[in-house]
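Work Package 3 (structural annotation) set out to generate three-dimensional models for the target panel prioritized at the project kickoff. During this period the team completed the workflow that converts sequence records into discrete structure tokens, so that structures can be stored uniformly alongside our sequence database. As a representative example, we reproduce one entry of 86 residues exactly as it appears in the project archive.
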Amino acid sequence: MSDLDRMLDAMRAMPTDARLTGIDGAVIAGVARRREQAMARRSLALAGLLAIGIGWAGTILPAAPAQASPLPIGMSDYAPSRLLGQ
């Protein structure tokens, strides 16, 4: 037997570390967390692409031609100056 075989036999005979008993749960929790992060990232990317698509379609296909308002912005027909005829 070589020195390497003796070292491996000695390691095999050693007791295992107690921290390794709970490693399965930690690994599964890490995988689940990564999966949730990836799904959140995909959902955000899909929402962004959808918003860009709707914005692009809205600029290409306008509903009606743009027209300027005859009144200044925010001036109502019921403003005092309009009611007094000024």
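The mean pLDDT is 85.
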